Every structure is written in structure tokens, then in C-alpha cells.
Description:
The protein has a 13-stranded mixed sheet, sandwiched between helices. The chain has three helices and 13 strands. By secondary structure, the protein is mainly beta.
Amino acid sequence: MELEAEAFYIDGRRTGALVRETGGGALRTTVAFVLPDGQLVHLTQETRYEGDVLGWTSYRYVDHRSDIDITGVQAGDAGGTGPRPVPSYAAHLLLVQALRAGKDRLEFSQFVEDGDRRARDAVFAVRGPETIDTPCGRHEALKVQLEVEGEPRNTFWWDGNTVVRTDWQGGISYATHDLPLLLSGLDPRVLSALDSALSRPVCPERRTGFGGTGAPE
């Protein structure tokens, strides 16, 4: 089991985390953070696949705040005759595969887990290198823009090994392998939401860190 963790910031304040577990033919994503008004956001999504993510077989998406639970959706229900669209959370795997292969553009289709299941044309496009600030220092990274049906969406920065920063259009997350720092000072509700995702050991890869409660912008 491989685990990736990202510190989640809103308005420069560290308020939660995003955790991805990959292994056993599945990608499991847990997101938990506190909004400025004090509300807890807790989302979980699991995509099961065979071979690679384009061979996905089912997914489950749960919005714990809104009691939305979409369970057991099968790949054959996604519709369409072209390449199989992927759940939007699983598009992360396509992004990483494309960047590791040196591609500067990847066209695909995706749908939103709690949406109308309509496949939407999407593209990951490399916009060029940038120097970015993160809580653990400056990075040279490639800026990658996600566009869905021609509209700019999330933005990612890739340092050649991992996505070190993501702009989610409302929050920003930063990659880290320092779990004690990731969890320090977070709302107890966030810690409870992350508990099951972080119960597995993290792979001993490159360590990055962050500190403080504010993120440089």
C-alpha cells in the first residue's frame, strides 16, 4: 500500500489534509478540512480498477457532511462509445502517468462522482516551468492546468517526482511525507475523519515537510 498526503490550506491557514492510498487494485482518497465558518468537509472516494485506472470497474463516493453516498457504480454504467471516462478523483493517476512519461498534454474524459454521470471532455496541459513557494521552501516545478469542457479548473505543480502543490479553486494543498507535522494542530474532527486513512504505514520515500500555520503565497 502506497500512501500520499497533502496539507490543505484555506486563506493561508492549514485546516486539513488530503490522503491518497494506492494498492490492491484501488485508489482511495480521503479529504477532510474545516471551512472558515467552522463546518467540517469530509469526503471519501474509492475507485477500483484492473491493470490501470482506465480499466476501472466501480467506484464509491461519500460526502459525509451531506449524507451523499453513491455506491457500487459500475464502469458499464458510465455510457459512451469512446475511451472510458474516469471518475474525477481517479484522474490524478492519469496526470501522474502522463507527467512521468514526459507528456505535455493529455486529453481524456471524466465525470463528477456526485454529478449527472455525463462524461466531460478534459485535458491536462503543461503551461511551463515556474518557481513556486511552499511551506517547506521554494520549488522549481512545471505548472499543469486542468481544463474541463474548455474551462480552467484545478492547477497542479510537478517537480519531476510528485505534485508538490495543487490549487483546488478554493483551497491549496501541498505534498508532505511528515505525518506528525501534517496532523499537528488540526481540528479533532479532521483527525477523526483521517484516522482510517492514516492507519496504514506510509512508504519510506522522499521526505518533505512543512511548518507553521500559514502558507506562503
